Give the backbone structure.
Amino acid sequence: MLDVCDLVLEDHHTMRRQFALLDDCWDDPRALGMIWKGLARMLDVHAACEEEVFYPYLLKYGDSGDDDATEGDVVDETDDAIGDHDEIRDAVAAAKKEEPGSEAWWAAVRKAREENDDHLAEEEHDALPDFRRNASVELRAELALRWLDWRYAHDSGEGITYDKDPEEYIEQYRSSPVADPVAHPVDRSSVTAS
Ligand SMILES: [Fe+2]
Ligand SMILES: [Fe+2]
């Protein structure tokens, strides 16, 4: 069965692999430029996709923090994630201004990698386990369809959103929660339309 959590993890694996490719090509600026072009876009697209298709649903269905048996709650998890996404996006934007292979470029890419590594670990330790515990398999499957459709429509990077204020983002989805995706399955021709 499709599962949005698995699709998130798949992207995380690809990102880590792509950063490792940069190490493989460390002395080839042309290859570095090509790999980075795709990786930079993927970092931005992945973050925007999570902000469309994962965190709004985590805020609705994840751990409210009322139960002492689990750590954290959806507000903390989302606040951390959006803040991290902003840091990653800023580092990616800084690296895009430098010449691939230059010292300044490596410094900016290293910063993006560190920010991203820390963030992926947090998502994998907090947000994703929270969703696996609290969201039904039907919901995770329906969101996987939305994830795929959104990604297919935005993989070029066109039309994606960038930095957001974490508090405003949380407030937006707390005051107007998303509709239940299982009760409102997406149309086969336009998953992103809802
Ligand atoms: Fe992620
Ligand atoms: Fe993320």
